[in-house]
Amino acid sequence: MSNLILKKAICVICFKPDPVWLEFLSGFEHYDVYISVDDNSENYSEIYKTEYPSVHIIQLENSDCENKGFTDLNTHEFAKKVTAWEKGLFYFAEINQGYEHIWFFEEDIFFYSEETIKNIDIKYPGSDLLTAPMKSSSGASKNWWWWPKIKIAYQPPYYNAMVCGLRVSKNLLFYIKEYAANHNTLFFLEVLFPTVAIKHHLKCDAPKAMTQIFFRHKWTIYTLSRKNIFHPIKNIEYQKTARQALAKNNLLRSVTFHIVDLFTKLFMNTRQAIKTAVGR
């Protein structure tokens, strides 16, 4: 394994490890793989170390994050200052700083294989932030209902994106860590990553392969592909079924995906144009 590839990691965010994700990640060869866990009722590293030795479990006390200001990424939604998100972010910003890039995925994210992620990395080797398309508080998301609830120690404009799946750089983690140290808190994760990145003039991109990351959507075997990242698929067992189906070449599924993809892009572009016009 080359040093270039070793500089990247994948971290899944969850309440407790799911066997489907453990099995899936254990087959990866070109990334170090982690699962950041919210639940501390059991020692999951001990439970799974024999069966899945290549999967590293991040399991921290809430106080570890609170003492360093890694809090409040999801407070408005879950009323919890610390979740698996804060623990994963804290781990790579404070404890294990050995990676140039880290992919974070919530467990209801779907992608076909390690190759899906490798192909994106090859196309965007130097980006500090990869997300679904971003919006601005002075434009398309001007009337977003979250803005009045978020306290941010920067001057506007601010930026937001769906971050159920994203890639961050060591540089971006440094500035997030700096913000936490200076303000003893962070802020809503959909705003944190793009806003910190843009305020510090970091390189941000929205790959085509990440345009299927939505807040709500019903994905089926016929609307998934091997090349893209999708959200949400909350039934984790269905994710396994979908990967098995995608492993088989199927012309109908391929044609259906491309048709749905075309109409989805047209719809999203139209909606974005309307929101931008209203926000002006």
Please tell me about this protein's structure:
The protein is of the alpha/beta class and 280 residues long. The protein contains eleven helices and eleven strands. It has helices spanning 3-6, 19-26, 44-48, 62-66, 75-78, 84-95, 114-123, 170-183, 189-199, 236-246, 251-279, and strands at residues 8-14, 32-37, 55-58, 101-106, 129-130, 135-136, 159-160, 165-169, 204-205, 212-213, 230-231. A seven-stranded mixed beta sheet has the order 3-2-1-4-8-5-9. α3 (44-48) links the parallel β2 and β3 (55-58). α6 (84-95) crosses α8 (170-183). The longest helix is centred in the last third of the chain and has 29 residues, at 251-279. It is globular and about 50 Å long.
How far apart the termini lie comes to 50 Å
User: How much strand?
Assistant: 5-15%
Shape: globular
Percent range for helical residues?
40-55%
N-to-C order of helices and strands: HEHEHEHHHEHEEEEHHEEEHH
Poorly predicted segments = 1-6
Question: Cα-atom Rg, whole angstroms?
Answer: 19 Å
Which structural class should the secondary elements be placed in? Answer: alpha/beta
Give the count of helical stretches: 11
Mean pLDDT across every amino acid position: 90
The counted number of beta strands is 11
Strand order of the largest sheet: 3-2-1-4-8-5-9
**Sheet with most strands:** 7 strands, mixed
